[in-house]
From TrEMBL:
Region (Disordered): 1-26
Domain Luciferase-like, first and last residues per copy: 35-273
Entries under Pfam families matching the protein: Bac_luciferase
Domain of life, per lineage: Bacteria
GO terms assigned for molecular function: monooxygenase activity; oxidoreductase activity, acting on paired donors, with incorporation or reduction of molecular oxygen
Residue ranges of coiled coil: none
Keywords: Flavoprotein, FMN, Monooxygenase, Oxidoreductase
The keyword Kinase belongs to this UniProt entry's keyword annotation: no
Protein name: LLM class flavin-dependent oxidoreductase
Family from the record: Belongs to the NtaA/SnaA/DszA monooxygenase family.
Bias-annotated ranges (Polar residues): 1-18
């Protein structure tokens, strides 16, 4: 199917909160369906028809309006990503499901538990778009005496992500036995407490969801800064980019890829992907890519990591 050619990886967003401006007034738009599950089911199935790697739902924790006029003119409602993607898990069979969740306004245990559950319910298709909530636009909806200041959010996010991954590893892959005769549901020797005591979090563990099917749901991040590239090289699986020119994109690509070696990662462990428009992508672009032998005609695996060609992470508690 691929004729030995390198295969493209493609994804699309379902809806971007607050980014449409007045586009909802277009006759082809369907703003009345913004909280209609059937609408998102149609979008997800269209993306799956095109054999895309995954769909993702952006998010933020405030309305996009700063005035009564902006409340009147703009769309300021959208579905919560993990709830939506959990529902879409049952309406699709192959396509990956990526939810945006901020490390600034959540706790690691909750996020680890929700994403592990989504990975199990979807058969290994969950992904986390990790964000840190830029600025303080969302802050008025949360008590902030225990939240990181803006300049602390990268360090806070790094600890958050490490704790989440440790919680995913707290159950080894073969910890669940279900031996009815012996009465053993699990092997306690393969279930691990974290006893994490850090700058921001105190988490004993273990998680109360078994290790995700993918080991870890796919970690997605987006950004351009030097600090961002270093963090992505250390722990991301996929990086979103929307660079405008080919030289700019090439420079970003090679700069990011060269950083992986210092963390003991091969370049193939990190993918760079641009966002795309869904209908045109599926009905016009993908058929041409398939004709050229550089995009799949059928899904060859079941999990999102298999779609993307990413390795399944090892468990930090298991000594090989």
């Amino acid at each position: 199917m691929s004729n030995g050619k390198k295969q493209l990886k493609l994804s699309t967003s379902l809806i971007t909160p607050g980014s449409s401006g007045g586009g909802w007034r277009d006759q082809a738009a369907q703003p009345e369906r913004i909280l209609d599950f059937a609408f998102y089911r149609e979008l997800a199935r269209t993306a799956e028809e095109g054999k895309l790697d995954y769909i993702f739902q952006p998010d933020k924790y405030t309305v996009s309006a700063n005035s009564p006029e902006e409340l009147r003119r703009g769309i300021n409602i959208w579905p919560e990503p993990l709830t939506l993607l959990s529902a879409l898990a049952g309406a699709t069979s192959h396509i990956g499901l990526s939810a945006t969740v901020s490390t600034t306004y959540h706790e690691p245990f909750h996020v680890a538990r929700m994403l592990a559950t989504l990975d199990h319910l979807s058969g290994g298709r969950a992904s986390w778009n990790v964000v840190t909530s830029i600025g303080d636009l969302d802050a008025h909806n949360f008590r902030n005496d225990h939240r990181p200041r803006h300049e602390q959010r990268h360090a806070h996010s790094e600890e958050f992500l490490d704790v989440v991954k440790a919680l995913w590893d707290s159950w080894e892959d073969d910890a669940i036995k279900i031996d009815r005769e012996a009465g053993d549901f699990a092997d306690p020797g393969k279930i691990h407490a974290l006893h994490h005591e850090g700058t921001w979090f105190s988490v004993r563990g273990p998680l109360n969801v078994a290790r995700p099917i993918q080991g870890h749901p796919v970690i997605v991040q987006a950004g351009r800064s030097d600090t961002f590239k270093e963090r992505s090289a250390q722990g991301a699986d996929v990086v979103f980019t929307a660079l405008r020119t080919l030289p700019e994109a090439q420079s970003f690509y090679f700069d990011l890829k060269r950083r992986l070696a210092k963390y003991g990662r091969p370049e193939s462990d990190l993918l760079l992907m641009p966002p795309q428009s869904l209908d045109d992508l599926v009905h016009y672009v993908i058929p041409e890519l398939q004709n050229r032998g550089i995009f799949r005609t059928e899904y060859s695996g079941n999990t999102l990591r298999e779609h993307l060609g990413l390795p399944r992470p090892s468990n930090r508690f298991v000594v090989r």
